[in-house]
Amino acid sequence: MTEPFDALHLLSKTSHAAHCRRCLTGLPAVSTDLDASRLVIAFYCISSLDLLGRLYDKISDAEREAWREWIWDQYTLGGVHGSGFRPSPYMKVENPSEHSVQYDASHMIMTYAAIITLAVLRDDFERLDRPSLIQSLQSCQREDGSFSTTPGGGETDLRTLYCAFAISTMLDDWSGINVPRAVDFIAKCRSYEGGYGQAPFCEAQGGTTYIAIAALHLIPERLRNGAEVVTPAERAQTIRWLVQNQEPSGGFRGRTGKEADACYCFWCSAALQILGARELVNVPALLQFISDCQFRFGGIAKSPGGPADPYHTYLALAAVSMYPPDNGEVEARIGSWKLPRLDPLLNTSEETSDWARKYVRARVE
Question: The pTM is what?
Answer without folding.
Answer: 0.93
